[in-house]
Design goal:
heterodimer, A: 490 residues, alpha/beta, Four Helix Bundle (Hemerythrin (Met), subunit A), Rossmann fold, 434 Repressor (Amino-terminal Domain), 3 domains, 8 strands, 57% helix, 8% strand, flat, B: 306 residues, eight-stranded mixed β-sheet, 11 helices, 14% strand, binds guanosine-5'-diphosphate, binds magnesium ion
Chain lengths: 490, 306
């Protein structure tokens, strides 16, 4: 592929400085590159055309033409224009006094509505609401089962209703919310094509029946040029209030966001970026603008931060760690974190006392990998609650992983050791419990203005609560801790 | 509505769109001028061809038209259609004709894998094959139930394990069951995943490897294993990155493009087929069990330009 946009602009403008002043032709050349970047990012070609025309005018001002750093200036203008187009200030959803408030999700098939519904409910719950999820997709096989399973995972009631009438299900769900003291209902609807007259009429009928406070359209970040027609039709028929962009954890540039905004004027409210229920973030236009332009350095930095943030131990896991109730899911998480941070060796070196263990040649860096293979042969229940792993389960796990039962026994012994280490650590240092408490109260302050960037600055600290926040770095490991750790890695 | 009606309805829509677009090229813009090329370029970009591929195709067409001194727009468009249809990689044989065969369906979340497996299961058994489907999507909530319902609709047996089970060992068991039951067309559904997730891609590679290994030892005839990428037609330029990543980890054998019943043209599939030499083996044109069609390059290109 080509270099990132900043580099390309830089090379267009380099060598021009001798001329003293940029010409309109130089700006045209720059605009061609910008056009290319926008099209590669899936911004709709009509939107690109308008955008280039209006931005070119701004770039033809004397400040840019005479500047010493024209590339930077052009980029700054483009970024600003893009950010403005994407909506410069964050939009907040308003609750009405009605009980329950009704939110409705719509979108194409496979765009991620069901997952988004659960994430939204999770988010609202954290903000102190008491949501109800309603399964109004009566067409896709097992759609209601999916929502129900997701609801169970995050501890939120799911209303399935009976029958095959989504309008009635939506209506009954609002009654169910009243009966069960829920203040907001999130209705998951079937995926539908914007050109499917019958299905679009159905969406309108659901809307008219329950009069939602808020209708959100879920749009896949990977969508291409077709997005414009799709959102236009949905805006005209169901008149949604805002957009959730899904699958932004991939590497799609997400130019559709820009197209949606400029064609319908509807704001993008959330971005959904991962499999975890917590991975629904407020939408940040400035970050999206950089992403669309593919501004390598900035974007890759952000993405790196995102990776680390992804590995953030979920709060429940963190709590379990604090109570030394480690399970095998935590093992996997810890292993991933270690990999990201340069492996066991570099990690140990960073710890006082760890260097010695390494020097003694007692650390086997492949040990964790082998453990993971065994853990992968366990069922979800076994991973979550290792105490259920009895003799016959061990034999089955060993078969699945292609190892001797002895290896499984050893892993379980190691697991016990690790638990012991954690217990000891918790007794000594300022424990995780204390550290994680402020975050637990659902306090937004910590997350606010955070998103990915914060993940970076706090990367180490948040990524490694199990080691670094245990006070190890301050006090070093006690001989018995070090001994245990060594045992573990043998 | 019967599938025959649906089919002809779909076709007539395509035909209508086609004639409308041909009008644009042949009647409204018979002259091969700047506007003609701009229009063509815009049509291709709007169809998700990507600006690089578009620039290249239009450039080549311009050169060739000049060289051959083509008289008018109609002649240029004829050449264009010919060239386009040749861009697609072709398969030596339809992987659904291989006997016995095990086919794995991979792709990102929501692209249409499970639905496609359901449609193909019915298609296979209607063609006299002994079909077995297996659910190696042990991750997504209710994915197993979803495939279960499709298997019931297609009236084929299904092999499944509980949610959270290791997908590679499910795949293993599916082949084992096929060997026992004498099934000769095995369709394995996998969990959707983003190509950017290294862990999940590694997990999938393991599923494919385990399948290949076990399939090779099936008695009396080893199963051939094919891996197909299921791609949503609405996907934009990221589709190429997806296909590259899946191909790099799994060595794909082909692509199925779904949701072509919408207005998206699926132009990125052309780039994928060409660059990675992957044939498009089927297309999905709806949510119904019969909404599956063979791939016809000429028809696909016509629809692209519509
Ligand atoms: N309109 C249309 N929808 C489809 C097509 N194929 C799948 N779908 C829908 O896309 C959504 C996701 O499909 P699914 O098979 O669950 O995707 P998976 O996550 O890849 O298994 C479902 O709502 C399907 O009904 C198609 O060809 N046309
Ligand atoms: Mg599926």
């Amino acid at each position: 592929m080509f270099d990132n946009l900043s580099n390309r602009l830089q090379s267009i403008f380099s060598g021009l400085r001798s001329k003293g002043r940029l010409s309109e032709a130089d700006i045209d050349a720059a605009m061609r590159e910008i056009r290319l970047a926008l099209l590669e990012a899936d911004v709709n070609f009509k939107v690109v055309k308008d955008f280039i025309a209006s931005t070119k005018e701004k770039a033809l001002t004397s400040e840019v033409l005479e500047s010493l750093t024209p590339a930077q200036n052009v980029i700054a203008i483009v970024l600003e224009e893009l950010t403005n187009l994407l909506g410069s200030e964050a939009v907040k959803l308003q609750f009405s006094p009605r009980i329950p408030n009704v939110w409705m999700l719509v979108g194409l098939q496979g765009s991620g509505k069901t997952t988004a519904a659960a994430k939204l409910a999770y988010r609202l719950k954290k903000q102190g609401h008491n949501p109800l999820l309603a399964a109004a997709d009566v067409y896709r096989p097992a759609a209601a089962d999916q929502l129900e399973a997701l609801g169970k995972e995050i501890g939120i009631r799911v209303f399935r209703g009976c029958g095959k009438d989504p309008i009635k299900i939506a209506q009954d769900a609002t009654q169910d919310a009243i009966d069960n003291l829920r203040d907001v209902v999130i209705i998951d609807t079937a995926g539908r094509l914007h050109v499917d007259e019958e299905m679009m009429a159905e969406a309108e009928a659901i809307r008219d029946a329950v009069q939602p406070e808020c209708i959100l359209m879920v749009v896949d970040a990977m969508t291409g040029q077709d997005i414009v027609g799709v959102v236009e039709a949905f805006a005209e028929r169901v008149d949604f209030d805002g957009v959730i962009m899904s699958k932004l954890d991939g590497d799609a540039r997400g130019g559709g966001a820009l197209s949606i905004r400029s064609v319908t004027g509807k704001p993008i409210l959330y971005s959904s970026e991962g499999e975890k229920p917590s991975s629904l973030e407020e939408f940040y236009p400035d970050r999206m603008a950089k992403r669309i332009l593919g501004m390598g350095d900035v974007v890759s930095l952000i993405e790196k931060a995102q990776e680390v943030a992804d590995l953030e131990i979920a709060e429940e896991e963190e709590e379990r760690l604090a109570r030394a109730e480690l399970n095998f899911d935590d093992f996997i998480t810890i292993n991933k974190q270690m990999k990201k941070l340069g492996g066991m060796g570099s990690l140990l070196k960073a710890l006082p006392g760890g260097e010695k263990a390494l020097a003694d040649g007692q650390v086997d860096e492949g040990a964790l990998d082998r453990m993971i293979i065994i853990i992968n042969s366990m069922t979800a229940a076994e991973r979550a609650k290792p105490s259920v792993i009895n003799g016959s389960r061990r034999a089955r796990i060993a078969r699945g992983a292609g190892v001797e039962v002895a290896a499984v026994n050893q892993l379980i012994k190691q697991y016990e050791t690790m638990r012991k280490i954690l217990k000891q650590m918790n007794l000594g240092a300022d424990s995780v419990v204390k550290k994680s408490r402020p975050r637990k109260g659902g306090k937004k302050s910590k997350r606010k203005g955070s998103g990915r960037q914060q993940g970076l600055s706090k990367g180490m600290g948040r990524g490694m609560p199990d080691l670094s926040s245990l006070g190890l770095s301050k006090k070093g490991m006690s001989p018995s801790q070090l001994k245990n750790l060594e045992d573990l890695l043998k | 509505m019967s599938w025959l009606n649906r089919l002809s309805e779909g076709l007539s829509r395509t035909r209508k769109q086609l004639s409308e677009s041909l009008n644009v090229y042949f009647e409204l813009s018979p002259e091969v001028d700047e506007d003609f090329w701009d229009n063509l370029e815009e049509t291709l970009i709007a169809a998700d061809f990507g600006v690089m591929a578009t620039t290249r195709i239009v450039g080549e067409l311009q050169d060739e038209s000049t060289r051959k001194a083509l008289p008018d727009g109609a002649a240029v468009m004829k050449l264009f259609y010919e060239k386009m249809a040749k861009l697609f990689a072709t398969a030596k044989e339809d992987c659904f004709d291989i006997n016995p065969v095990c086919i794995l369906f991979v792709g990102i979340n929501g692209s249409g894998k499970t639905t496609t497996v359901g449609k193909l299961a019915k298609d296979g058994s209607q063609n006299g094959r002994k079909v077995l489907v297996g659910s190696a999507d042990t991750f997504r909530a209710a994915a197993i139930e979803q495939l279960d319902i499709w298997a019931e609709r297609a009236q084929v047996p299904v092999i499944k394990r509980e949610r959270g089970a290791d997908p590679a060992s499910v795949a293993f068991e599916v082949i084992e069951a096929a060997e026992k039951s004498g099934a000769n067309q095995v369709l394995i559904d996998t969990a959707g995943r983003l190509h950017t997730s290294d862990d999940l891609m590694r997990e999938l590679a393991k599923v494919v490897n385990v399948t290949r290994k076990r399939a090779a030892s099936v008695e009396p005839t080893p199963f051939e294993v094919k891996t197909l990428l299921v791609l949503d037609a609405t996907t934009g330029q990221n589709g190429l990155a997806q296909a590259r990543a899946f191909n790099a980890s799994l060595e794909l054998d082909g692509v199925i493009v779904t949701k072509l019943d919408g207005t998206a043209k699926g132009g990125i599939a052309v780039a994928i087929s060409e660059e990675l030499a992957l044939p498009i083996v089927r297309i999905g044109v709806g949510e119904h069990i019969d909404d599956l069609r063979p791939f016809d390059p000429q028809e696909f290109v016509n629809a692209l330009m519509a």
